[in-house]
Amino acid sequence: MAKKLNEVDVVLVGMGWTGSIMARELSKAGLNVVALERGPNRIPGEDFTLPNIRDELRFSVRQELMQDPAQETVTFRHATDKSALPMRRFGSFLPGDGVGGMGTHWNAQTYRFLPSDHTLRTDLTKRYGKKKIPDDMLIADWGVTYDELEVHYDRFEKLCGLSGKAGNLRGEIQKGGNPFEGWRSAEYPNKPLKPSMAGVMFEKAATELGYSPFPAPAGNMSASYVNPEGVRLGACQYCGHCERFGCEANAKSSPNTTLLPVLVKEPKVEIRDRCYASRLVYDKAGKKVTAVVYVDLRTGEEYEQPAGMVFLSAWVFGNTQMLLHSGIGQPYDPKTGKGVVGRNYCHQIQSAVGVFFEDKELNPFMAAGSLGMVIDDFNGENFDHKDVDFLGGGYIALNSTNGRPILNRPVPPGTPRWGSEWKEATAKWYRRAASMNCQGSNYASRGNYLDLDPTYKDILGRPLVRMTYNFTDNDRKMSAFLTEKGAGIAKAMGATHISANPRKGDFDVVPYQSSHNTGGTPMGTDPKTSVVNRYLQHWDAHNLFVLGASVFPQNAGYNPTGAVGALTYWVADAVVNKYLKNPNHLIKA
Amino acid sequence: MTEALPRRRFLIGAAAGTAAVTTVGAFAAPDIALAAPEAAAPEAKPETTPTGQVATAPDYVPEPMRILTATEAAFITAAADAIIPADDLSPSGSECGVVTYIDGQLAGAYGAGARMYRAGPFSTPQQGAGEQSPLSPLEFIRAGISAANTWVKGKYGKELDGLEPAQVAEALKAMDGGKAEFAAIGSKPFFNALLQLVMEGYFSDPMYGGNRNMASWRMIGYPGLPATYADKIETYRGKRYEVEPQSIADFS
């Protein structure tokens, strides 16, 4: 029997980016906040220090900062006519764990979505007519527009201290920035990073081809920066240990480096680490949640924490399963198309173009997680789809993220993977290779969804999330198109060898693709096709809000965190300025 | 006789490896403090190379194994030396400490199945869904070596470590291609797991027992630590940045 605790104003389930932002905004508004985080606390000055933070085996290969699959994983199948098997190790994506969440160990590539990504169905219908959108493509408008979110994108970028170059300042196109981006109210808070050799070569080639290259928006500090919370971030050392690592220089935007130094001093915020939320207590008649049940993993004891408001601020799978375990909202059924929880699950259709240069020294280890040059010419609605047989697109970037040798030592196609010939090729090409990343969108499809697995359980005895997912024809065609454009840039760069690998065939959970999983609790304007309204408030529980990329109705051709941060500030604003004055449904269903 | 043979082969292989590394020892810088104190093998006297530099004592001697049997260690030695053959780019896999590395990994939390979802039921892998073995990595490698040696013996009359280098490479190639028929587990998944461990041992920080003298980092030109390049990324743009590599031990 769960031990019942005293009620608090707010409980947050998960303490990554969204939990940290919400804890800050709601405690500032005078509310008492309890954050439940199932992973450990993480303190940069103790946990992320030289020399051990440069241990590729420990952090990158053994994935120390990631969720432990023994605690909870997901099961996977390609389609409903197959039985699902558990991901016994994480591969294609890497869920985070601990205070700071995935924000601790990301690369910090922080984009805004295009204005049209927020109103996708309306825009595509207007531009191409209804018939262009396949029947089984479940794309939707967000219910909130880019113009409404701009101030919140800006706020998140200032919290992070992003390094970059604006391409559109209040409608004026700026040289050197992304001319396709939505308008910005302000320049980036930090100047762009110093480009790598490969980045300079990409920029030159892309310019020659008539594209508009710009520096990747980076949560790596080009110079030391004090954010609006008064927290100082250090200058990036270009060490090439961002993704899967914490930053010893406090030079990477993360909850740990931007907000937690303030939150740990805030008496209204209590972070309970190693506390694993198992379900919400739901008052269906009253259309609200009343408490969060959790297990303290240090003792195994179960608690019921009553709360005035609850925010799901876990990752995509965590948010979705919490609703399914708690019986809140109708689970999605792909056969009938009815129900909403688990709907619109998407990933990122990433592909790579490897480039090798016989006569160039690239020093791949001089790198940073967001150090890159990008073109956005083939993203979303930046180009006309009238004459192509797919929808969507993505950016193409040459990112110099790392030269860590266990996992990153490319050799030209056709090279054996061991033996003398492999050694010779590795010795020759390690310093002369780079990789382009085609960050393809993933538009929701009727057959791709999340529900609960009938067989496999987590350590609390709850069913695991079951992921039913595969690439669609649209995805494959989009990836072929985008990857070919990338290969064109590789040719213009004068590469000796080019290895272009569009996504083909079926999805595979083993090779890493990206941790840009989205959907499962989509936002929208219609409770029949969405879980939360434009304020990310649950249609069936007015004091329950769902944060993070699980609310995306589809994934755009960008890394998701910029949009996640903007949406979180948007929700905080709505809660503080609207909901607290009249705690009820902000939108009539 | 069959009991004693693997151990003897393991030791003979080690001695041969020591001789091999002596001839290419010139790249081993004497000021690196990584060589283990027990590294002075009898035949490893420093000698002068044609360039006049003093070659350091090769620091490879087979170390006591924590969990691998002599047969298993001999198999992994033979495999590691085919996957990473000694040449003028680096010593062989075993000389670089790969067997010590793999033994250490399999003896620890990784080998015991940490950070894996291990609950049943179990079923055969499906395309795209990842490995589904009920075994821990230690058990999986053990079962794989046993199966591999059975197959190798059937085909060549000897276990892997008894074969000539060209035959070892041929046998591993058959496993890599999934063409070696093992009784229970697939030869390709086994080879994939083995290859991954060998590469980890070759390229990881030397504190785990492999990558001795940072041989692989020297080979590719990876500088290791501390990796602070804010003042170098522009000055070395397009120019090779070549320094004596440093590892975690150099900063501890």
* Biggest sheet architecture of chain A: 9 strands, mixed
CATH topology of the domain at 1-49 and 95-144 and 253-346 and 514-589 in chain A: FAD/NAD(P)-binding domain
Radius of gyration of CA atoms of chain A, rounded to a whole number: 23 Å
Largest sheet of chain B: none
Poorly predicted sequence stretches spanning 5 or more consecutive residues of chain B: 1-57
How many helices of chain A? The count is 13
Order of helices and strands of chain B: HHHHHHHH
How many domain regions of chain B? 1
Regions of chain A with pLDDT < 50 over 5+ consecutive residues? none
Please state the CA-atom Rg of chain B, rounded to the nearest Å: 20 Å
Quick summary of this structure?
The complex is a heterodimer of chains A (589) and B (252). Chain A has 589 residues and is an alpha+beta fold.
Short descriptors:
heterodimer; A: 589 residues; alpha+beta; FAD/NAD(P)-binding domain; nine-stranded mixed beta sheet; six-stranded antiparallel beta sheet; 13 helices; 25 strands; 22% helix; globular; B: 252 residues; mainly alpha; disordered N terminus
How would you sum up this structure, described in words?
- The complex is a heterodimer of chains A (589) and B (252).
- By secondary structure, chain A is an alpha+beta fold.
- Chain A has a domain at 1-49 and 95-144 and 253-346 and 514-589: FAD/NAD(P)-binding domain (3-Layer(bba) Sandwich).
- Helices cover 22% and strands 21% of the residues of chain A.
- Chain A is built from 13 helices and 25 strands.
- Chain A has helices spanning 17-28, 44-47, 56-61, 115-118, 120-128, 146-160, 197-208, 255-258, 260-263, 316-326, 420-429, 473-492, 561-579, and strands at 3-4, 8-13, 33-37, 74-77, 85-86, 168-169, 172-173, 214-215, 225-226, 232-233, 269-273, 275-283, 288-296, 302-312, 343-346, 349-356, 372-375, 394-399, 433-440, 449-457, 463-468, 497-501, 518-520, 537-538, 541-546.
- The radius of gyration of chain A is 23 Å and the shape is globular.
- The two termini of chain A are 36 Å apart.
- The model of chain A has no long low-confidence stretch (mean pLDDT 98).
- Chain B is mainly α.
- Chain B has one domain (7-251).
- In chain B, helix 3 (98-107) crosses helix 7.
- The radius of gyration of chain B is 20 Å and the shape is globular.
- Mean pLDDT of chain B is 83; it is low at 1-57.
- Classes of the chains: A alpha+beta (589), B mainly alpha (252).
- Chains A and B meet through helix 3, strand 5, helix 11 and strand 20 of A and helix 6, helix 7 and helix 8 of B.
